[in-house]
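Handout, section B. The chain below has 167 residues.
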Amino acid sequence: LVIVYTGLFSIVVTSAGHLVFRRFLGSLRARGYNTRNGLILGTGGAALRFVDTLSRHTIYGYRIVGLLGPRAGLSPVRRALVLGTIKDLTRVASRVEPDLIVYAMPIQMETLRRVIEFCDSEGIDCRIVPDMLELITAHARIEDMDGIPILTVRDVPLQNGYNRFVK
């Protein structure tokens, strides 16, 4: 009987602790604390779906600071988020200081290589919203955000609060 009570008590306490922590984290992020700045490369369908997903799910902790890409065909609200083109990446990144750069545009290998090299040199997390299955490699990690597959090419481990605390 003690084992059954302990098991049930553990489940209830763990679930309650998890719920309280998520609510606390959600309230912090709603006030702008404990968030990471994200710069989205692209203004197409994949990029806008990703922005919408992050807007709906604040628990992920990302705040979109801008988009890089063409303004054509965007609503006025979306057009205001566009900070330049992909050629302006270095200038815009130095201005907005993103913690995360998301490549969400059609794959152009030379452009993607430059973005990854830039992220490596600046210590910025780099994620790719893939539009093709050929992008999946053994060295990448795939995450799912509300049905959108995200390919993590470079992840800075110390950005995670738990890893930073342990170190």
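Note. Helices lie at 2-30, 45-56, 76-81, 89-96, 109-122, 161-166. Compare this with the example in section A.
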